[in-house]
Amino acid sequence: MTGQGHSRYEIRRGESYDQSDDCKKSYDAAVLAKRAKLLNAKKIVHIGDCTLYLGDCLEIVPGIGPIDAVVSDPPYGIKFQSNFRRSKYDAISNDSSTEVLCWACELPVLHSAYIWMRWDVLSDVRKPKSLITWVKGKHTMGDLIGEHGRKTEVCAFYPGPDHFFPAGRPTDVIFGSSTNNKLHPTQKPTSVLSQQIQWTSGTVVDPFMGSGTTGVACVQLDRKFIGIELDEDYFEIACERIAKAYEQPRLFPAEKPKLPKTMDMFAEDSK
Ligand SMILES: C[S@@+](CC[C@H](N)C(=O)[O-])C[C@H]1O[C@@H](n2cnc3c(N)ncnc32)[C@H](O)[C@@H]1O
């Protein structure tokens, strides 16, 4: 049990349950083991309102049912390799093409999808409704002579059929300092993802959760979360961070999403 009574409850695919164990626990374990097998997940972990899958999201997502919202940072298809560090965390799976990024941009969602990407792969993906720009405190290194120091990253917004802005219409700019990528080579700041999560409604899914930043932001906002990660090291980091987040006092009070206001059809930009 963690501080606030959120147990980490996990089961690996193929794991059996103990008949002499408490009935309910055994039943839950059996259901979870069956579910892991069906979804082809290597492991399922429940922590509070978060369900975390170790496995390939391309196989798992079709089995998790209708999706309310996606907030995700897939591999950008740019063969990312940190300039500064060579550690076991440097290589990112599925980063050699934009295939999984394109897949993420096509995900059917009821409320909304926010998908991070680099500006130069935009022409590969489905045209977004708008583009969110994150302005960072520092610029990146990259090509020191031939390219502008990049201080921004972009995120595509795809509204679903039930979309509304839960707390009024936001602008398309987010400000926030970058992380020092201690846990993952492309770790996003929790504060940036928190801002986006407050634009969504329902359960948030991150099929490429990496070190679990989206999940941490969901815990802080009292939102339900489903995360999937292929790499076992990152998966374990995500589990630890999310369990720890439940032990911290909530940074933001949970707010019920407001109902959409009646639309003003004559307002500018209402198209
Ligand atoms: C850009 S990183 C996400 C970083 C995350 N936003 C964070 O703050 O830590 C993308 C992650 O997707 C994972 N990944 C790549 N292909 C995957 C797949 N098919 N299924 C699940 N995860 C995958 C990689 O292992 C990597 O950790």
SSE inventory with pairings:
Elements: E1 8-12, H1 23-39, E2 43-47, E3 50-54, H2 57-60, E4 69-72, H3 99-105, E5 112-117, E6 130-135, E7 152-159, E8 173-175, H4 190-197, E9 204-206, H5 213-220, E10 225-229, H6 232-247
Parallel strand pairs: 3-10, 4-5, 4-9, 6-8, 9-10
Antiparallel strand pairs: 1-2, 2-3, 5-7, 6-7
Helix pairs in contact: 4-5, 5-6
The chain binds S-adenosylmethionine.
S-adenosylmethionine (SAM) binds next to helix 2 and strand 10.
What are the main properties of this structure?
alpha/beta, 10-stranded mixed β-sheet, Rossmann fold, binds S-adenosylmethionine, 271 residues, disordered C terminus
Overview of the molecule:
The structure is a single chain. This protein has 271 residues and is α/β, with parallel strands linked by helices. The protein has a single domain, classed as Vaccinia Virus protein VP39 (Rossmann fold, 3-Layer(aba) Sandwich). 22% of the residues lie in helices and 18% in strands. The protein has six helices and ten strands, in the order βαββαβαββββαβαβα. The chain has a ten-stranded mixed β-sheet, sandwiched between helices. Helix 4 crosses helix 5 (213-220). The N and C termini lie far apart (49 Å). 36% of the residues are buried. Residues 81-86 and 267-271 have low confidence and may be disordered. S-adenosylmethionine binds at residues 56-58, 73-75, 92-94, 100, 184, 186-188, 207-208, 210-211, 213, 228-231, 234.
